[in-house]
Write a structure and sequence with these properties.
The chain is α+β, with helices and mostly antiparallel strands. It is 43% helix and 11% strand. A hairpin with a 5-residue loop joins strand 2 and strand 3. Helix 9 packs parallel to helix 13.
């Protein structure tokens, strides 16, 4: 070891390439110049197991001066004297997982079905698609390089502001031939993405990557969703649009799906995934095995049954796509064509039909539990767990709401008398006979 001397600016500047000096005031503290002009400070210490460790403090210059480096060396030696290993801890911090790596682990477990929702079921494909978009478009660009253990509530607040202000907004091509992703940002995107970020950090806590969730306590803005409903004039325009689409080149199954949405208030994904095996036209009920809220039984009004009876059994799906065997992936663009023919504004989406159905039901005077049963909201009462078939009350409600919506759309409504269940619950007269498979 070279002769000890107090390290100062003059000693550091005089170091030759490959030279090394040791401090006389703090044992183990030194400075070294490699082949270039940079000088780095370091300190040597022994662990509790007797192993010799070298801790690199940093390069000479801002922020490290000889005095600052000497103070840091004292801190390292104090920590080592208490049984710690500052060098190992520094290496662990340097190699710790980033937020991007955390997102990769979270996504892999979610995609494989290992992450359960509040209903103790794996996330659905549509939810996974939304999660992936928020991770790739917002979380990775803004927080991907940050260390998981280093993220603070202030970082989450800054992330939320950045998404709200549109700093991640942009347009990019997708994997599809003509696909285009348009990321806008805003309050709604920020709120929902921070919600996902909270779930990701909860996952990190469970995996032992940190002890707390930095998203907890961060106040999110309202998601910006507007509970839009159709006015009477817009319902009339929708009726005109459906009639015009039925005589134009719009795919007939898409027109029928749009009409079914208006008359039932279902989610568009539930309608497009509906299979003939799930629809019992005799009992006027549909049993959906897998919805956003789990297994769900829905009463079918006479008007909804009439829509189904007008379709052919050419596929397992009630509303098949124009080609192929999957779901009708182009329904959104087909809906846009239908809406355009009626002069409906662009903000009238299939989800607006769902909210409008619930609003019409409330206008008529039905209670929230009844409306929830009609459209498949998650039940919050104990009795909702035991409802397995449509009873006369729900059928009457479904008929009443559908009749009112048909009237608003300018369609002649039928008198839909409710046929009550007998004790066995099986004495329904079929409202129609659906077409047989060809």
């Amino acid at each position: 070891m070279a002769e000890r001397q107090r390290i100062g600016l003059r000693e550091v500047r005089a170091l030759p390439p490959g030279g090394e000096i040791w401090d006389a005031a703090v044992p183990g503290f030194g400075a070294r110049r490699r082949t270039g002009s940079a000088v780095s400070y370091f300190v040597m210490f022994r662990t509790a197991e007797g192993r010799l460790r070298r801790y690199t403090i940093g390069r000479h210059g801002a922020p490290w001066t000889p005095e600052q480096a000497r103070d840091k060396a004292r801190e390292v030696l104090t920590e080592a004297s208490k049984g710690g290993d500052p060098a190992a801890e520094k290496k662990a911090r340097r190699t710790a997982a980033t937020v991007a790596e955390l997102c990769d682990a979270y996504w892999a477990d979610a995609e494989s079905g290992n992450l359960m929702t509040r209903r103790r079921a794996p996330k659905k494909a549509s939810t996974l698609l939304s999660d992936k978009g928020r991770i790739d478009k917002h979380i990775r660009p803004l927080m991907g390089r940050m260390k998981v253990a280093a993220v603070t509530a202030a970082d989450v607040q800054a992330f939320m502001r950045a998404v709200t202000e549109g700093k991640t907004a942009g347009r990019s091509k997708t994997g599809n031939k003509r696909g285009l992703s348009n990321v806008r940002g805003g309050r709604g995107a920020a709120s929902r993405t921070v919600g996902l970020l909270g779930a990701i950090f909860t996952y990190a806590v469970r995996k032992g990557m940190r002890t707390d969730n930095p998203v907890h306590g961060v106040v999110r803005p309202a998601d910006g969703r507007r509970e839009r409903r159709l006015s009477d004039d817009e319902y009339a325009a929708l009726g005109t649009a459906l009639c015009a689409a039925a005589t134009s080149k719009v795919w007939p199954a898409a027109v029928a799906a749009a009409r079914f949405l208006a008359l039932t208030g279902w989610r568009s994904g539930e309608v497009l995934a509906l299979r003939w095996a799930e629809a019992d036209l005799v009992r006027r009920a549909a049993t959906l095995a897998d919805t956003k809220t789990g297994r769900s039984m829905r009463p079918l009004s006479h008007a909804a049954c009439d829509v189904l009876c007008g379709l052919l059994h050419g596929s397992d799906l009630v509303f098949p796509p124009t080609r192929g065997k999957g779901h009708m992936s182009g329904f959104r663009s087909l809906w846009a064509r239908i809406a355009t023919q009626g002069g409906l504004p662009p903000d009238v989406t299939p989800h607006v039909l769902r909210h409008s159905f619930a609003s019409v039901a409330a206008d008529i005077g039905y209670s929230e539990p009844t409306i929830a049963a009609l459209i498949g909201h998650q039940g919050h009462t104990i009795t909702s767990r035991y409802v397995h078939s449509a009873d006369a009350v729900l059928l009457a409600a479904a008929d009443a709401v559908a009749i009112r919506i048909a009237e608003l759309m300018g369609e002649a409504s039928k008198d839909a008398a409710v046929i009550e269940l007998n004790r066995s619950g099986r004495e329904y007269e079929a409202p129609c006979q659906p077409s047989k498979p060809p």
